[in-house]
Automatic annotation (TrEMBL):
<dbReference type="Pfam" id="PF01547">
    <property type="entry name" value="SBP_bac_1"/>
</dbReference>
<protein>
    <submittedName>
        <fullName>Extracellular solute-binding protein</fullName>
    </submittedName>
</protein>
<keyword id="KW-0732">Signal</keyword>
<keyword id="KW-0813">Transport</keyword>
<feature type="signal peptide">
    <location>
        <begin position="1"/>
        <end position="20"/>
    </location>
</feature>
<comment type="similarity">
    <text>Belongs to the bacterial solute-binding protein 1 family.</text>
</comment>
<dbReference type="InterPro" id="IPR006059">
    <property type="entry name" value="SBP"/>
</dbReference>
Length: 429
């Protein structure tokens, strides 16, 4: 997930939603179907905005682009890597102005329904972009729908796990990862006392706060009843859990900026024994000196709170800009990049979780042991609501998380987030 949406981007998202409501009804848009009998004869240049890490993940996707261009010699793909924390705002600005938007965007699952509601995405039902829809896992597939129509195809899915340094835990006297928050605190303190390394490094990001919320039985929204439930006793307990980890020394006090990079560096260099992270991080983790021997990395479910172990669901989709001048070429590109074979290549190379059931049977996927470890964690992950406002929920929660670690009381932090949520969803109770 590796994403933090700026306050400016969140404000822009809300402003754009308001401005678009009276001018666009994406639910009535009809998909433009390819009239070309032979897809191999389709020509044109398409621009793809990719949001993966250019150093550790980008090469695999660029390899697939070369395969696509070999199969479709009349289509040229312009590859543009856009930082994941900037892509949402940049795409909205470009789509709103009608200039500079890519033909295809790698859209975070929470953005897809928002972009669709604003009329920025091409409907895909009945087009060549959607191939063998029944093969997709139900969770990722649900994130591509808005008003019962399809506006994207799933590319990768993800969740969070506890990544840990087996060597350091063993030096502290532990052969297994902690299973509960109580155990996490104890193991982390023992690591610090016996090895000198920090026990846990936190990433100050909204997505990474969700395991604590879900673990105490909390949530952000009650979607069926259109109710905002972020300010709840369960969430207050979750925030107290987080602050206790830091106050006790079990978790190093994180910097409020660049905490993701800091946590990753600490794990890779052996300065922290444990972090929460997802399958997208593995290719980078294995570049660290502590994990030249890949078997030193442990992957376990996130520790359970008092109610359950609650890892969130995330991932990325491929969507086509409604204003693209190369719709047919874009259909073919999305179809190719979301094929079972392409997804298996990504999973085999990077450990990312494929969105097709059949891809898990591919030898390339089965040869990657990390996928096998993450799959059961994914199967029990907590689903998120795919609503247009979903992409705007993380910024207030991030600001609240930062305030919490700066000393704001849990109940005051949650009250602030609740007020911001009501500003976004004015007709929710």
């Amino acid at each position: 997930m590796r994403r933090v949406i700026s306050a400016a981007a969140a404000a822009a998202a809300l402003a754009l939603a308001v401005s678009a409501c009276g001018s666009s009804d994406s639910g009535d848009a009809a998909p433009a179907k390819s009239a070309v009998a032979d897809p191999a004869q389709i020509s044109g240049e398409i621009t793809w905005w990719d949001t993966t890490r250019p150093d550790s993940e980008g090469p695999t996707f660029q390899k697939l682009i070369k395969e696509f261009e070999a199969a479709y010699p009349k289509i040229k793909v312009k590859y543009v890597n856009v930082p994941s924390d900037q892509a949402q705002g940049q795409f909205q600005t470009a789509a709103q102005s009608g200039t500079g938007a890519p033909d295809v965007i790698r859209s975070e699952v929470a953005w897809t329904s928002q972009f669709a509601s604003l009329g920025y995405l091409q409907p895909l039902d009945g087009t060549r972009a959607v191939d063998n829809e029944s093969d997709y896992l139900a969770g990722p597939l649900s994130s591509t729908k808005y008003n019962d129509k399809t506006y994207a195809v799933p590319q990768v899915t993800d969740t969070l796990a506890l990544l840990y340094n087996k060597r350091i835990l063993k030096e502290a006297g532990y052969e297994e990862a902690p299973k509960t928050l109580e155990e996490l605190k104890k193991v982390a303190l023992d690591v610090k006392a016996k090895t000198g390394a920090n026990g846990l490094a936190l990433n100050v990001d909204s997505y990474f706060l969700l395991p604590f919320i879900y673990g105490e039985g909390g949530d952000l929204l009650d979607v069926p009843n259109k109710k905002i439930v972020v300010n709840s006793p369960q969430n207050a307990k979750a925030m107290a859990d987080v602050t206790d980890l830091v106050a006790s020394g079990a978790a190093a006090k994180p910097a409020l900026q660049d905490s993701y990079a800091n946590a990753m560096t600490a794990l890779k260099d052996g300065k922290a024994a444990m972090i929460y992270n997802g399958p997208w991080a593995l290719s980078e983790v294995y570049q660290g000196k502590e994990f030249k021997d890949k078997t030193n990395l442990g992957i376990a479910p996130v520790p359970a709170g008092s109610v359950k172990a609650g890892a969130p669901t995330g991932g990325w989709n491929l969507a086509i800009y409604a204003g693209s001048k190369n719709i047919d070429a874009s259909y073919e590109f999305v179809r190719f990049m979301s094929s079972a074979s392409s997804l298996a290549t990504v999973s085999g190379d990077l450990g990312l979780l494929p969105t097709r059931a059949s891809s898990f049977q591919d030898p390339k996927v089965q040869a990657n042991p990390d996928v096998a470890v993450f799959k059961p964690i994914l199967d029990t992950a907590v689903g998120r609501p795919w609503i247009p406002e979903g992409g705007q929920l993380f910024q207030p929660l991030l600001e609240g998380y930062q305030a919490l670690l700066a000393g704001t009381k849990p109940e005051d932090m949650l009250k602030q987030v609740d007020e911001q949520y009501h500003g976004i969803m004015k007709d929710w109770s």
